[in-house]
Write a structure and sequence with these properties.
With about 190 residues, this protein is of the alpha+beta class. It contains 6 helices and 6 strands; from the N terminus they run βααββαβααββα. Among the domains are: about 60 residues, no CATH class; about 70 residues, no CATH class. A 3-stranded antiparallel beta sheet has the order 1-3-2. Helix 3 packs parallel to helix 6. The relative contact order is 0.13.
């Protein structure tokens, strides 16, 4: 039976389109963002001579990764290979000093900057960061001239008194002092 024209149509079956969806409005595209790990904002230390990557430092100096967390790296980069951990680079003299501190009585590898008195050949050492004058190092670190003789100077210059002024790598002097302190605490010299 045909419907009468006076019968109202239900709103759900209405052929009219809703006002919010007009055909002239383009469909919005979704934007996706790639998740990245949070950026570490801890400050970095200044480069001081040769550098060494974290994994190399663990192998070469036989220190634990947890020990390396106690010193500040010079750079931190995103690891593009697996993204699990950032690539961290340290000053090698800082790692050598740390190895002497956490492994007292254990020798450093021969390729390390401070192999000890046997490495003293009388020549000049390679410049590695900040320099310090011999007399300043003796006063500041309370070392004797005999102890300073264990290190090779970086450069020598004639002074006004007719002698020679010697300059050393500051990080090597710091590591020497630390090595002598750990040896004293271990009972070797006392």
């Amino acid at each position: 039976m045909p419907k009468s024209p006076s019968t109202p149509k239900s709103p759900s079956k209405s052929p009219a389109k809703s006002p919010s969806k007009s055909p002239s409005t383009p469909k919005k595209s979704r934007t996706y963002t790639v998740w990245r790990s949070p950026i570490d904002t801890t400050p970095l230390t200044a480069p001081n001579g040769t550098s060494i990557k974290r994994t190399e430092a663990v192998k070469k100096y036989k220190v634990k990764p947890a020990d390396l967390d106690t010193i500040t790296p010079i750079s931190r980069q995103l690891n593009h290979m697996d993204g699990s951990a950032p690539i961290q680079v340290y000053n090698e003299c800082d790692v050598a000093a740390l190895a002497l501190k956490v492994r007292p009585g254990k020798p450093l590898p021969e390729s390390a900057l401070l192999a000890g008195p046997s490495s003293s050949s009388g020549g000049l050492a390679k410049k590695n960061g900040a320099r310090i004058m011999r007399t300043t190092a003796v006063k500041e670190f309370k070392l004797t001239p005999a102890q300073m003789d264990q290190l090779n100077p970086v450069s020598t210059t004639p002074n006004v008194y007719g002698g020679v002024t010697k300059y050393y790598n500051r990080c090597e002097v710091e590591a020497l002092k630390l090595r002598l302190q750990t040896a004293n605490e271990g009972g070797i010299f006392g």
